[in-house]
Amino acid sequence: MSVRSSIEQATKTMMGVLSPSEGQTDILDTLQAEHDEVQDLLQRLSKSETAREQKSLVNQIKQALVPHTKAEEEVVYTPIAALSGEKAKIDGAEGFTEHALASATLMQLDSLTPNTPEFKAAAKVLKELIDHHVQEEERNIWAQVKENFSDEQREQMNRDFLTAKKRVKVA
Ligand SMILES: [Fe+2]
Ligand SMILES: [Fe+2]
Asked: Please, what is the end-to-end C-alpha distance for the chain in angstroms?
């Protein structure tokens, strides 16, 4: 974002016209904030010792992760996979595959009784999957986004991402 548009956005935000997550925000800033949130929840889940808290954390992870991954597939992975280079196509396909694995593990975790060895194992696997996925995504996918999309396109991607998230229903 240019200095001028940053100032314009800050002014609009202060005036209450825009929330900080709307307008001219770069999609990568939104994705970063959401990754931090989910990784923090997974870290808390790994340390939690009560069934009640574990159940609440799984629910919070589901509410955060499901819209994020679905909207990310639509607004980020699909355009990346459509780029001409083979590296971009592989990075996009790898992202889809890891999302499917995370989604299956999250469903399994959600079906298990909290505070049991099986639950703790599934929570550990989900955390490992997400930590790995986020690290690769922030390195490979974001490099593709920076290389192939302008500041304006990334701001439009952010608006599309927030709209796409609202359409996702979480059970
Ligand atoms: Fe992500
Ligand atoms: Fe992702």
From this structure: 36
Asked if 137 and 19 count as a contact pair (C-beta separation under 8 A), the reply is no
How close is the Cα of 24 to the center of ligand 2, in Å? 22
Give the distance (Å) from ligand 1 centre to CA of residue 18: 23
Sequential DSSP letters for 96-158: HHHHHHHHHHHHHHHHSPTTSHHHHHHHHHHHHHHHHHHHHIIIIIHHHHHHH--HHHHHHHH
Distance 169 CA to ligand 1 centre (A): 18
State how far the Cα of 158 lies from the Cα of 24, in Å rounded to an integer: 8
Look at the block and give the residue holding tokens 């100032």.
7
The rounded Å distance from CA 36 to ligand 1 centre is: 10
User: What is the pTM for the complete model shown?
Assistant: 0.85
18-56 confidence digits (pLDDT tens): 555 557 999 999 999 999 999 999 999 999 999 999 999
Rounded to the nearest whole angstrom, what is the distance from the C-alpha of residue 97 to the centroid of ligand 2? 10
Report the alpha-carbon distance of residue 99 to residue 151 in Å, rounded: 26
Q: Mind listing the pLDDT tens digit for each residue in 128-150?
A: 999 999 999 999 999 999 999 99
